Amino acid sequence: MKIAITGSMSSGKSVCSNILRELGYYVFDSDLAAKSCYEKSHPAYKDIIQLLGEEILDEEKEIVLSKVSSIIFNNPSTRIKLEEIIHPYIKDEIIKHSKNYEFFFAEVPLLFEASWQDMFDYILLITTSKEISLDRSVKQRGFTKEEAIKRFNAQLDVSYKIVRSNYVLYNDKTINEFKNDIISWLDKVKNGVKN
Are residues 95 and 116 located together in one domain of the fold? Predict the structure, then answer.
């Protein structure tokens, strides 16, 4: 069974993934797979430089991710072109890894934005309130309040994601309460209950 873990910004997707890993499950990290595309040895490296220009490189010709972020966040058409380069590699990795596990979990923050729902048998959506999301983004990710609001508003509306997900976990709790919710949800999935 292929299970996607997705959700809004700073909702707890990675926390959920780490809890599943603690429980002995493999969780594919699509953000990590995307970051590997920026390495010199990756086939996408030259295409990314061709798209964004050499100003994204440091002295050692390594791609500086913060420079990439500042270009694509303010230019949606360039972001789409970059995704067209990177996404096929991530999809290939998901397909390759998913064959090795009875329960294959993949953390895919942009699942709905990339229209990858059909790649999975089941979608778990992690969400929280806008206030909690913004607070976590500032405290844990180092965004300014303005950056956090801008990024939050750039996401697809959570109501769109809720109706397209099999199960929704609200992460407005303590870590232990959230872990218990994940374990309870996991028991349902293993027993064949879709929602």
Answer: no
